[in-house]
Structures are given as structure tokens and as C-alpha cells.
Amino acid sequence: MTSFLLLMKISWRNLWRNPRGTLLTALALGLGLALLLISLGLLDGGHEQTIADGVRFGPGHVVIQAKGYQDTGSQELLIAARVVSTIDEFLQTGPMKRVLLGASPRLLATGLLSSAANSAGVTIIGVIPRDERAVSLIPQRMLAGAYLSDDKPSGVVIGAELAHKLELKTGSKVVLMTQAIRPPGTQAKEATGGQMQSTLLRVNGIFRTGIEAVDAGVIQLPLPVAQTLLGVPDNQVTQIALFLRQEGESLMIARSLRKQLADDPVEVLTWRESMPMLAQILGLDHAFNYIMNGVVLAMVGLGILNTILMRVLERRYEFGVCKALGLRPGQLAAMIVGESLALTAISLGLGLALGLSVEHYFASTGLDLRRLFGSGLPPALVFDPILYSRLSLARIVWSVCIVFVMATVIAFYPAFKAARTELPDALKVL
Amino acid sequence: MIQSAVELNDVMKTYRTGPIEVPALRGVSLRIVPGEFVATAGPSGSGKTTLLNIIGGLDRADAGEVWVAGQNLQLLSSSELARVRLERIGFVFQTYNLLPVLTALENAEFTLLLQGVPARIRREKVQKLFLEIGLAGLEDRRPAELSGGQQQRVAVARAMVTEPALILADEPTANLDSATAIELLDVMERLNRATGTTFIFSTHDPQVMDRARRLIRLRDGQVASDEARDGQGTLAPAKQDMV
Are A423 and B59 inside 8 Å of each other by CB? Predict the structure, then answer.
């Protein structure tokens, strides 16, 4: 124990034989950690925003829809009114209300929207404006006019690209044409199933989400209007989109709903299942980021290895003396590892201070991507041009552990070299 | 017969650099009894340092027997040699070789620390030794803050503090001026007489040769002469039981 303390004392003092060199080396390793923290914070923040935006422009954190809808997209697949009531009752229970931010029933179909100037194929989304307003981003992205309201049954909101193509503005009249839905099991002669239907609507508002497919091809109208137009009886809908307070609870809620609705012909999907492309893009982005961080850390690590190795090689004579005096190879190696650990501790302190400071800035003020990309923002990942960093404690601990383990492993080679100091060669005076 | 402090029997050592072989020791035999104050002298390349390295367990002979304090070093493993060096042998090097990051006191107690001696006893021993060899008051100075002579005294203290059976000093006065060298020799001779520790020097320095009570001259890796001082201080061939 005494000799261990001596070795640690020597290690610590050796570190300060060349304070400038030590601080520069510590700074290099600290910068590696800081970069890791900053990039992970921006990555997680970006992904969190992307997921949040993705689910709010799309089908929510969890979506309940008729079985088979995800694969076929058939607008004839509807959730029966009885099941809608069951789901509604379940969503009103205490445990669900605690995690649920909102739920929006939607009726989805395709149709043709025509103006005096032009016409375009569109995705029709029938919504309850009050519910949709609570969960979707479209009501918040109105460029002109206003979003739908429950007391204006004939309004429609359209994307900016669509408005441009059809030369529409708020208040313009449009005709929406679609084929009435024929639910499975009903005959063509029954009700309006399969027949072409049309209705005259007035543009209530124009939105811009930044997602071209949405801005050019999606329209929203009140659910009763859509149900009437599509000939949907009772209170049937295509899907119920659920929005949660925490994205991390998606899987748990989906499992709970699957169990609850096991006997009903519905499928419950998390956003990863309903938007597999988005999940894959985020996964790829994660992998790419890990590779980049690995490269940065490897470069920093090699720099550290070089520095420690040089420090060891230039003290070969000193190690020879220690060995001649009776210091065992393992003790010599411990001395070098101790030196490296002390250096790592300083580096981690510097890296944490620097990394968390910058991360805090990006978490509160954000990184405005418009400054980096101008108007050519990459649309795939980020809907909001201001990226906010989000760094969890687990990420910080993980990053510190990675750098610590890397620095410790790196120290083994110089320690091994020191332990292998050959006597009496090391004692030769040059 | 008195037990040997050091006994070498027909020790051979050859250094090899690629195809080139340089014989350093060619059949050296000698016996040194406890308490002797011995200098080995000879021109460069005569084998002085090699001889000290082999006696100190820093290097191994190619052939022959090397006995130090009753142990045949040729039969010991590296870690056993390290233990012998730590417990039985003290070293004083030409260039002082103090650890620059430790104070004079910490350098002197370095080997005691490695032996696990408690702090109070370490401090007592070192301070007593520092008082004896004129280093009192310099305990907290780093080597860079000491003169060459003071550094070499700290090195002597480091070698002596564990009370080893044998101290090996490789040209200890080579980097000192003559006045400082004399002071250092005084210290070592006094310690030798007071403690009975065996001292073996390698040296070019006539002052060291003059002070040695036995002078072994080496030439081309062999013992050229082995003389001991008589009562009047005159060198005469060493007695048979010493050789």
C-alpha cells in the first residue's frame, strides 16, 4: 500500500514535469470528449425533434388502424364504430390519460381536387379539428387563413405547393372528387359504395410544413364532411393517432393496446413501424455518427499514445535506475498507468467542462442550421431549422466511460514498454 | 574462513552486436570479504562496469559463478534478483540518478518505501543519515535544487539507508570536482568503517584509488593485479584468502 502511494505520488508529479505538454495532451483528450458530448447532444436533440415533428405530421407515436391497412393502404379498411368506442373508453382510463397527450381519429382516402385553373391528386384526411389541433403540427403551420374549426363544416385546408399549383388562396372554391368507400362484405349496390362522389369546399387556410409531399398532396377537412363524402356509415375511421408525452413510452403503450384490443380486427403500430423509412434514416444517422465519433476518438487516442510513449521513452534511464533499485516491472507499469489515469482525469474534467458548456448553449439557444446551409436545408431529417441539443445523463456517463476506457487501454502499451526496460542497457549514459 | 560478501569464480561475459563479439570479462575470479573498501580500476573497456553490473545482479554472466551475500545470482529469476537488489545491495551511479520529481528526503527513503517500512521509521533513518553525511536541512529540496556533490550524497544515503550488505558505486566521483569528491569519499569511508558495509567502486579517479584499501586492476576483462594496503598504507598483493 505504501509503495502504491509512492508510485501514485511519482505518477502525479511526473505529470507536472512538463506542465505545458501535460495540459496540451489533456486538452486534446478533453476536446475529444467535448466533441463526443456535443455531437451526441445534437444528434439526440436532432433525432428527438425529427421524431417529434415526424409523428406530429404523420400518424403519431402510436397508431391504431384496421388490420392490414399498413401493408395495403386500402381506404376500405376501417375501424368499426364499436371498436372506436372501445378504444375511446380505454384511452379515458387513468393510466392512459397520464401518458397520453392527445388522440386524433382520422379518415384517410385519396381523391382529386380541382380548381378553375387546375386539378391534382390528393390525400384526404378527415379530422376532428379540436382533436387534431391538440396534436398535429399542421394547425401551427398556417401560412394564410385559419385552420379548420368544428363549427365550419365546409372548410378545407391545403398545402402551399398545392395552392400554388391550383392557383388557390383562402376563400377560393374547390371541388373534391373521390370514390365512395365500399367496406369489405358490402355489395356494390348497397349504399354509395364504389360510386364517384364530389363536394364543393371553400379553402379555409393554407399551410406549409416544409415537407414537399405534405405541402403538395395533403388536404384536411372536418371528419363529418369526409365521412359523408366517402359514404362511411356510423362513426368509422381509418386510424386513431395517439400522441404521447414521452416518445420512449411508445412501445409500452403499443403493447398495452395490443393486449387490450387482441380480439378486435385492428393493428397497433409504434411510429417505428408506421414510419419505417424515418426509423431507418435515424438508425443510419446514428451509425454514421458513431463511426465519425470513433474516427475522432481514434485520432485523439493515437495522439495520446504517441505523447505517453514519448514521455516513457525519454525516461528510459530513470526507469533503469528504478529497476536497479528494486522496483519490479509490474510496479513500473503501474506507475505509467497511474500517470495516464491522472492525465485522463484532468482530460475528463476539461472535456466535461467544455463539452457541457457548449452543449448547454445548444440546448438553450439552439444551433440555427439556416446559418450553415442557407436556404438549402436538408429536408430528410430536420423539419425545424433550429436544432436543440438534448444530452441525457446516460449519454454523458457512456461518453466518459468510453474515453476513460480508451485512455486506460492506450496506457497499457507504454506501461508495457516501461516494464520491459532492460538492465543494464537502460543505465548506459548517452 | 570468513564468509564472502562477494565471490566470483571464472566469470565470463561477452557482448554481441550482430556478428561482432566483444568479450568484457574473461575468466574473472575474486573474493571480497564483508567490510572491505574496494576499488576496481582500469582503462575504458577493461570490464569495470560489467563487473559491477554482474555483482549487482543488473546483468548476468555467460559462465561462471557469482555469489553475493551467500546467494548464487546466476540461479535467481529476474524478480528474485530485483528482491536481492532491493534488500541486499545499494547502488551509487555516476550521474547521481535521483528521481527528479521527489525531494531529497523522498529520494533517500525510496528503497525503504519499496520495502514497506513504516513512515516514522523511514523518516528517522533518513534524517539520522542526512545528519551524518551533512545533508541536514536539505530534506525538502528537489534534485535540481542541489549541487552535484549534494545529489551524490543523497544517492549514497539512498544506497545506505536500507543497511545493505554491499554498496556498488560506479565512478561516483566522475562528475564531481576534487574537493567535493574528497568530501564524498570521506562520507563513504566513514560509513564503511561505522557500519561494516562492503563498498566496491569502479573508478578512473586516483583519489578513489588512493583511498581504497584494496585495489583490483582490470585489463582486457581479466584481473591484472589485486593489491591490498598494509598497516602503513602501502599496496601489496592481496592475501590468498581474499583472491
Answer: yes
Residue B119: other Cβ atoms inside 10 A: 11
pLDDT digits (tens, 9 = 90+) for A245-269: 888 889 999 998 999 888 888 999 9
Nearest C-alpha neighbor of A337 from the set A314, A299, A308, A306: A308
- Residue B123 in contact with residue B109, Cβ under 8 Å? yes
Please state, in angstroms and rounded to a whole number, the distance separating the CA atoms of residues B229 and B243: 14
Residues of B in contact with A10 (CB under 8 A): 99, 101-102
8 A C-beta contact, residue A22 and residue A349: no
Q: How many other CB atoms are found less than 10 A from the CB of residue B78?
A: 13
Residues B114, A3: C-beta atoms closer than 8 Å: yes
Q: Which residues does chain B have within 8 Å of residue A321's beta carbon, measured at their own beta carbons?
A: 93, 97, 99
**Grid cell in block for residue A405:** 476506457
Return phi, psi of residue B113, to 5°: -60, -45
Query: Distance between CA atoms of A62 and A260, rounded to whole angstroms?
Result: 14
**E-strand stretches of A232-347:** 239-244, 266-270
Number of H helices, E strands in chain B: 8, 11
- In whole angstroms, what is the distance from residue B15 CA to residue B33 CA? 29
Inter-chain residue contact B95 with A328, CB threshold 8 Å = no
Q: Indicate yes or no: CB of A326 within 8 angstroms of CB of B83.
A: yes
Q: Are B191 and B162 in contact (CB under 8 A)?
A: no
The one-character DSSP state at A325 is T
For the segment A69-98, what is each residue's pLDDT rounded down to a tens digit? 999 888 888 898 888 888 888 888 888 888
Provide ipTM, 2 decimals: 0.84
Q: Considering CB atoms only, which of A2, A16, A317 is closest to B116?
A: A2
- What pairing do the DSSP bridges indicate for beta strands A239-244 and A62-66? antiparallel
Are residues B94 and A429, on separate chains, in Cβ contact within 8 Å? yes
B174 vs A: CB within 8 A: no
**Contacts of residue A116, Cβ cutoff 8 Å, sequence gap at least 6:** A167
Nearest in space to B201 (alpha carbons), one of B178, B174, B172: B172
Q: Which helix (H) or strand (E) holds A124?
A: strand A119-127
d(CA B171, CA B42): 12
Contact A197, A182 (CB under 8 A): no
Are the C-beta atoms of residues A123 and A213 closer than 8 Å to each other?
A: no
